[in-house]
Amino acid sequence: MVDFSTLRGEIDAGRPGNAIAVLGRICDGGDANADVHRLLSYALLTDGDEAAAMDALAAARADTSAETELAFGRFLNGKGHARAALSCLEAAVALDPDNIDALALVSMTQSKLGDRAAMLNAGQACLDAADRAALAT
Predict the structure, then answer these.
(1) Rounded distance, CA 27 to CA 80, Å?
(2) Which of 26, 46, 70, 72 pairs as cysteine with 92 (C-beta 3.0–4.6 A)?
(3) What pLDDT, on a 0 to 100 scale, did the predictor assign at position 13?
(4) Residue 53: which of 3, 16, 103 has the closest Cα?
(5) What pLDDT digit, counting tens, does each position of 26-72 carry?
(6) What gap in Å lies between CA 133 and CA 127, rounded to an integer?
(7) What is the DSSP string of the chain?
(8) Dihedral angle sign, alpha carbons of residues 104, 105, 109, 110
(9) Contact 106, 90 (CB under 8 A)
(10) 55-81: b or e for each residue (b if 16 or more CB lie within 10 Å)?
């Protein structure tokens, strides 16, 4: 039985190698749920393999929700993984285009990444969604 808490602790401690191996075997065996793919993506990001982490995030999206993507995007942003966080936040917006929190975080993350045009577009989309929400009440 895999102890995911122990694996998470190893990743948090900057030792993701064992977690990558264990989680990779689970994913390769076809027994992985979305949370396993997300934990693998975090381990890979901690190990510096952003491309593989993005693949793991894509696999996690087979079973997801806007709320889950928003939460994981916040988590990754807090860990300093802005590009991966942006991927999650954009997935949240794709699932719920009027999610004001996700739109605002997309804008802020785009700013952090230095993409001013994308930041402004996402910021405007956030304002538009807020206006629609205000008019609906």
Answers:
(1) 25
(2) 70
(3) 96
(4) 16
(5) 999 988 999 999 999 999 999 999 999 999 999 999 889 999 999 99
(6) 10
(7) ---HHHHHHHHHTT--HHHHHHHHHHHHTT---HHHHHHHHHHHHHHT-HHHHHHHHHHHTTS--HHHHHHHHHHHHHTT-HHHHHHHHHHHHHH-TT-HHHHHHHHHHHHHHT-HHHHHHHHHHHHHHHHHHHHH-
(8) negative
(9) yes
(10) bbbebbbeebebebbbebbbebbeeeb
| Residue 10 token pair | 């190893």
In whole angstroms, what is the distance from residue 17 CA to residue 109 CA? Answer: 28
Do 64 and 34 form a contact (C-beta atoms < 8 A)?
Answer: yes
pTM to 2 decimal places: 0.89
End-to-end CA gap in the chain: 50
- Average pLDDT value for residue range 106-124: 92
What is the pLDDT confidence band of residue 18, given thresholds at 50, 70 and 90? very high
Tokens 């991966």 — which residue? 84
* pLDDT exceeds cutoff 90 at 137: no
User: What residue type is 107 in one-letter code?
Assistant: S
Look up residue 74 and give its two tokens: 């916040």
